[in-house]
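step: validate -> pass
step: tokenize input -> pass
step: predict -> running
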Amino acid sequence: MTEILQQVVNALSLGSIYALIALGYTMVYGIIKLINFAHGEIYMIGAFVGYWTMRVFHLDFFVALIAAMIICMVLGVLIERIAYRPLRQSTRLASLITAIGVSLLLQYTMMRFVGADPRAYPPLPDYMNQSFNLGGVVIKSQQLVIIGISVLLMIGLQFIVKTTRMGKAMRAVSQDPEAAQLMGIGVDRTISFTFALGSALAGAAGVLVGVYYNSINPFMGIMPGLKAFVAAVFGGIGIIPGALIGAYVIGGSETLVSSLGFSLLRDGVVFAILIAILSLKPTGLLGKNVREKV
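step: predict -> pass
step: emit ->
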């Protein structure tokens, strides 16, 4: 029983990080039906912003977290404005290829300036290096911080989407952009806000991963980005609660496979889950079949 509880804590930590990344995927897709494959690289840049904030400027972890969210927010808006907005009326294939191109551009630009070698995250404050033993279950303060910050950010996102004026605009644009524009909603502004929100969450996830694994590199966004995409598809892409469920399922699956001694298979298991869920329910766990005009 102790081992099971220990793995649950580990799964919650990992799943919370995936959830922050997956929310960006699902929000952007829900608004403009675009799979933003550059999202994983925004998460990577967030990790480096946190690294530089703590290493170069010697600022606190929470300041680094906020700095990463702000920089990634600005970067997300710029990517949307420069790369995606001109292609909004083009085919989905054109937007998809552009997203892949932006992803590669960010990867190799970062590698040009920081190199390909992994970097260890700066030392953390003492309060984040403690451990608590609760009946044999070891809980690190880092895990508590990661879960706590992730939950707060997800609650904040839910509050914005459900209660604020911009959140209502997001929901209106996701249902019918043309009707929303006729009602006086600024579609471009709403889409930019969605990118900003999703990118801020990805930036936060990057810093939390740097803290959790103590290692970052310019290619760190590839696999977590794909897994977060799998989580979004698993729950029903475009559906925020579905992304959360998918992220925790993926995090739990990885933790379970690793605990059984099959660490080398954990990535394969994630994509096997995707194949299984798409075979049984192509729209995802919470998705519904929607007819499209052709």
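step: describe -> The longest strand covers residues 131-134.
step: cleanup -> pass
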